[in-house]
Amino acid sequence: MKTPRNTPQAQALWDGAWKDADASETEVNADLRALAEQLRSGRALDLGCGLGQNAIWLAEHGFEVTACDLSSVGLDKARAAAASRGARVAFRQLDAAEWTPDETFDLVVNTYALPMDGDRRARAIRAAAAAVAPGGYLLMADWHVGAARVYPEVFSEDDLLTLDEVLPLLDGLEVILQEDGRPGGKLPDVFVVARRPVEAA
């Protein structure tokens, strides 16, 4: 897999990934369910929403949701899925690596959607952290470098994460949960839940 180094390359990759995908077959992230059920409601931002399963679930459970993705193909399918279920989600096309937040949210989610290029990935993590409101939470999960040892024909370690890469980029957030190379499913991942203190307002 060639690592996308800019917005057009990344969009082409994800448009291709979602072209034949079925939104009805994608599952809501279990970690998101657990955290959101504790929060109950608020303003949520789903970065890299893909086919919209997490965003739609949040909207159906009392959140005011903005969902963003680089892929126009994924967004079209996500909009259709939300409409079919009567879920109110504000969908927006953007590149998370080339975006500066102009508002903040009670919950920011980025699950398995970070850029593979290291510089772009760092910018996306910083932007996600900056979008968290005082008292709000960030939930982030993505594939650990160990996934490249499981599927070397698919992944390069340079395209994947370690916890040590993520933590320094979470400016002003307090880390609540963190796992590096968490086992589960088919591949190890990096998992972080962080909160911005209320006094940071």
List the helices and strands and how they pair.
Blueprint: H1 7-18, H2 30-39, E1 42-47, H3 53-60, E2 63-69, H4 72-85, E3 89-93, E4 105-111, H5 118-130, E5 132-143, H6 147-150, H7 163-166, E6 174-182, E7 189-195
Parallel strand pairs: 1-2, 1-4, 2-3, 4-5
Antiparallel strand pairs: 5-7, 6-7
Walk me through this protein's architecture.
With 201 residues, the protein is α/β, with parallel strands linked by helices. The chain has one domain: Rossmann fold. Helix content is 32%, strand content 26%. It contains seven helices and seven strands. The protein has helices at residues 7-18, 30-39, 53-60, 72-85, 118-130, 147-150, 163-166; strands at residues 42-47, 63-69, 89-93, 105-111, 132-143, 174-182, 189-195. Helix 5 links the parallel strand 4 and strand 5.
Protein traits:
201 residues, seven-stranded mixed sheet, alpha/beta, 26% strand, 7 helices
Proportion of helical residues: 25-40%
Number of domains: 1
CATH class: Alpha Beta
Strand content: 25-35%
- Please identify, by name, the CATH architecture: 3-Layer(aba) Sandwich
How confident overall, as mean pLDDT? 91
Q: Would you tell me which CATH topology applies?
A: Rossmann fold
Distance between the termini: 42 Å
**What value does the Rg take, in angstroms?**
16 Å
User: Structural class, from helix and strand content?
Assistant: alpha/beta
The CATH H-level superfamily is Vaccinia Virus protein VP39
The overall strand count is 7
- Give the topology string: H per helix, E per strand: HHEHEHEEHEHHEE
Count of discrete alpha- or pi-helical segments spanning 4 or more residues: 7
